[in-house]
Predict the 3D structure of the following.
Amino acid sequence: MFKHAMTQEAVYNGLLKRERQAIHEQIGLVMEQLFHDRLSEHSESLAFHFKRGQSPVKAVNYLIESGEKSINMYAVHESHEYFAEAYDLLINTFDDSEELKILLIDLLIKWASVFYYRGDMKGLTGLLNAHRELAESFDDKARLGMFYVWLGFSLLFGDKTGESY
């Protein structure tokens, strides 16, 4: 609505933090209502608003969706940034609930292909090993299986063949 970006920035910075959070939250909720049938087209904007709003879990989900969208277009660097942002946000809001634990493991499994395309097997191995105990705490064999596939793959290509088996 502002003709000049500096005017917009001055007004935005003049708002209290909680007012800005409420505005971003409202924008995200309205976008979800307006674009309910094509949310994936707006996942980046939704992630932006929910991250600055009061719904970090929604932001993480939209960041993951944005990362998947980017990797499907072979925008590897951009995808990595979305997943890294989702990971940081999730780790900083981690409350030890089952839902967030599952979300974290799912994020790692989806993020693994980005590490593969980047050729960063050492980074992937470190990340997965840091959360191995959490992955092993689930009864979900399919999720644990995918976790182990990526861990084994990263170890194999990191010249740790024995460990990979």
User: Anything to note?
Assistant: The mean pLDDT is 89. Residues 135 and 144 are 6 Å apart (CA to CA). Residues 98-118 form the longest helix (21 residues).
